[in-house]
Amino acid sequence: MSQSEAGRATREPPIWKGRITFVMAAAGSAVGLGNIWKFPYIVGENGGGAFVLVYLACILLFGVPLLMAEIGLGRATRANAFSAFKQLSARSKASSQWKWVGGLGIVTSYLILSFYIVVAGWCLYYFVVTVSGDFTQSGQTLTQADTGARFDGVLASPVLLIVASTTFLLTVFLIVASGIKNGIEKSVNWMMPSLMVMLVLLAIYSAQNGMFMKAFDFLFSPDFSKLTLESVLIAVGHSFFTLSLASGSMVTYGAYMNDSASIGKTALAVAGIDTMVALTAGLAIFPLIFAHGLEPTSGPGLMFISLPLIFEQMPFGQIFGAAFFFLMFIAALTSGVSLMEPTVAWLEQQFSMKRLSAAFLTTVSLCAMSLLSAFSFNIWDAKWLFGMSFFDGLDFLTANVFMTIVALATALFCGYCLKPEQLQQMFGHQSRIIPVFTFSMRFVAPAFVGLMVYAAF
Ligand code: PFF
């Protein structure tokens, strides 16, 4: 038995069928509300092309190397994030306290899911409303004030938020509880291709019905005068979030990756798909925004206030509107599954729990946690962290604080604690990339994270 096999978890988890399935699952995790809801509005708020350029640089300079690191940590141990750090620190004779990096990653994914399901619930609600023709057949011409009031009404209703987010959460539960092979593998294999086809169709529709060239210019002609330090930081933070880094998800998915697949190529494929989807989402949304004389800077409401208004006024708006919100729902679903998996895998391996019980426990506790986020839009208006609502505070705490800590610690762990032979073993035949990888882990990733921390203070 090799050293790596001896150090692996006793109950070996199942392995994804082939490299493509892993790419689908990992891209399913990466492609989510971050790409379709958040990316277009942060590009809009931060001035367009120059921001996109900085974002692409972040993905390449440290996003891809960190993604390789996380997949590699998982595959080398075939364990959940907590045990992965524990086993590897033991093998490299480093402090066992590194396990808390994996632990914090699991906590991060759990907390993100508790508010992610609320936004996913909005998508579900808007899908139902658009399918039923509520927007398009209202009889009168809608204004932005009407769709704004509608969105405010959604936020003001605790019951609606709870029903929508719980429905989403139960769907995630069903997939995760069915297991890696029967649940996650089967669902991503049809959801991801359908998502991409739908997105391309929407972009074509939008190019024909909107101002494509203006949108293209907005996204791809950089105007550096619009770039601020704050926008650079938003780009750094978003690159962690969009690639599902620093949250235990990619370590956990890596644990199910087969030994022969190349980690470098796979990480590049995942980051490539994620970036293409984000840019295509921009190309699907901005032509319509410009054609209807709306502002690209309207923030989180871009999707739920501006788009319903546009779909109401367009030919086949009901069909395309419904397709759009369904697309967001599917994207959120594959990410939601990857956000639940780290906790479930940890419960299974740490406490020898059955998958069904682990998924059930996680779902019930998340249901309770998500109430706090849902209530913070209506009946609970307490300001929680630095004057933010619970929802905003949790978003800030996970995406800006926890993810930063986990990303930095993961980079330092791989850069300074792991021995050359361990890296060799992690990357197998791809050992030529080790010097570049180590350089990124030791210097590039910490420099970017350090910049974030410095600017935050
Ligand atoms: N990458 C997902 C998105 O862009 O929506 C969000 C996410 C999924 C973050 C899984 C973290 C994670 F572990």
TrEMBL record:
<comment type="similarity">
    <text>Belongs to the sodium:neurotransmitter symporter (SNF) (TC 2.A.22) family.</text>
</comment>
<feature type="transmembrane region" description="Helical">
    <location>
        <begin position="397"/>
        <end position="418"/>
    </location>
</feature>
<dbReference type="InterPro" id="IPR000175">
    <property type="entry name" value="Na/ntran_symport"/>
</dbReference>
<keyword id="KW-0813">Transport</keyword>
<feature type="transmembrane region" description="Helical">
    <location>
        <begin position="20"/>
        <end position="37"/>
    </location>
</feature>
<feature type="transmembrane region" description="Helical">
    <location>
        <begin position="268"/>
        <end position="294"/>
    </location>
</feature>
<feature type="transmembrane region" description="Helical">
    <location>
        <begin position="232"/>
        <end position="256"/>
    </location>
</feature>
<keyword id="KW-0812">Transmembrane</keyword>
<protein>
    <recommendedName>
        <fullName>Transporter</fullName>
    </recommendedName>
</protein>
<feature type="transmembrane region" description="Helical">
    <location>
        <begin position="358"/>
        <end position="377"/>
    </location>
</feature>
<feature type="transmembrane region" description="Helical">
    <location>
        <begin position="192"/>
        <end position="212"/>
    </location>
</feature>
<keyword id="KW-1133">Transmembrane helix</keyword>
<feature type="transmembrane region" description="Helical">
    <location>
        <begin position="49"/>
        <end position="68"/>
    </location>
</feature>
<keyword id="KW-0472">Membrane</keyword>
<dbReference type="Pfam" id="PF00209">
    <property type="entry name" value="SNF"/>
</dbReference>
<feature type="transmembrane region" description="Helical">
    <location>
        <begin position="314"/>
        <end position="337"/>
    </location>
</feature>
<keyword id="KW-0769">Symport</keyword>
<feature type="transmembrane region" description="Helical">
    <location>
        <begin position="100"/>
        <end position="128"/>
    </location>
</feature>
<feature type="transmembrane region" description="Helical">
    <location>
        <begin position="159"/>
        <end position="180"/>
    </location>
</feature>
<dbReference type="InterPro" id="IPR037272">
    <property type="entry name" value="SNS_sf"/>
</dbReference>
<feature type="transmembrane region" description="Helical">
    <location>
        <begin position="439"/>
        <end position="456"/>
    </location>
</feature>
<dbReference type="InterPro" id="IPR047218">
    <property type="entry name" value="YocR/YhdH-like"/>
</dbReference>
